[in-house]
Structure prediction request, 141 residues.
Amino acid sequence: MDGRFPEKLFYRIGDVAEITGIKPHVLRYWESEFSGLHPRKNQGGQRIYERRDVELALEIKKLLYEQGYTIPGARQLLARHVKGAEKPARQLRAGGDLSQALKICREELQGLLRLLQDHAGEVVRSPNKSSGAGEAKKRRV
Prediction:
């Protein structure tokens, strides 16, 4: 799979197994080995994966099956990635450059706007840099 999968709010374990090519019992085992992989359970006790869980499962699969990491090695690498991602956020909160924080927020919002434009198929307002007024754009799906 190329990392692209259906946009849904939640995925059942069977969906995740199909997307990742990993059997459900292996996914359940990974939950005990990787602290970041922790799908919620619904009232019926079924696992409900969010998009980030599916992306993490794909990353774990890549580390284990394609790059040859052991489970402890992959766990350690993923922990380092998480710590590395937390550092910039802590620096910004601890009195870092406010303009940099605003730039990051703007980029995130622009990305969300592009997603909405691609998936909504209806009128979406986007900022117009020259006049500051909103400009309506129609996209057909």
About this structure: The helical segments are 13-20, 24-33, 51-66, 71-93, 98-120. The domain at 1-93 is CATH 1.10.1660.10 (Multidrug-efflux Transporter Regulator; Chain: A; Domain 2). The first helix runs from residue 13 to 20. The CA atoms of residues 9 and 50 lie 6 Å apart.
